[in-house]
Amino acid sequence: MKKKIWMTFGPLLIAGAVFLFILFGPSSIFGGVSTNTVKKSATSMNPVVVQGVAIQQKNARDR
After folding, report:
1. In this prediction, what percent of the chain has a pLDDT beyond 70?
2. How far apart are the first and last CA of the chain?
3. What is the domain count for the chain?
4. Would you say which domain of life the source belongs to (predicted)?
């Protein structure tokens, strides 16, 4: 009986865990901007820096 329940709900639980990792995992792994990057980019007029929302937000929080 327990094996039958696991065979029914196991794939749903695994799919839910994978979905949550895909949804929240990358932002916590790749979402950080270091203070050093903010300092180097503070006076740069590079289009990537000017349009970089994450760097602008971090810079605004630090002031």
Report:
1. 67
2. 60
3. 2
4. Bacteria
**Owner of token pair 């007029």:** 45
**Distance separating alpha carbons of residues 8 and 41, to the nearest angstrom:** 52
> Residue 58: pLDDT band by 50, 70, 90 thresholds?
confident
Token pair, residue 52, equals 């970089």
Residue ranges in the chain assigned as alpha helix (H): 2-30, 35-41, 47-50, 53-62
Same domain, 19 and 41: no
Q: Do residues 55 and 36 both lie within one domain? A: yes
Q: Are residues 23 and 37 in the same domain?
A: no
Q: How far apart are CA 43 and CA 50, in angstroms?
A: 10
Determine contact, residues 62/38, Cβ cutoff 8 Å: yes
The answer to whether residues 49 and 55 touch, using CB atoms and an 8 Å cutoff, is yes
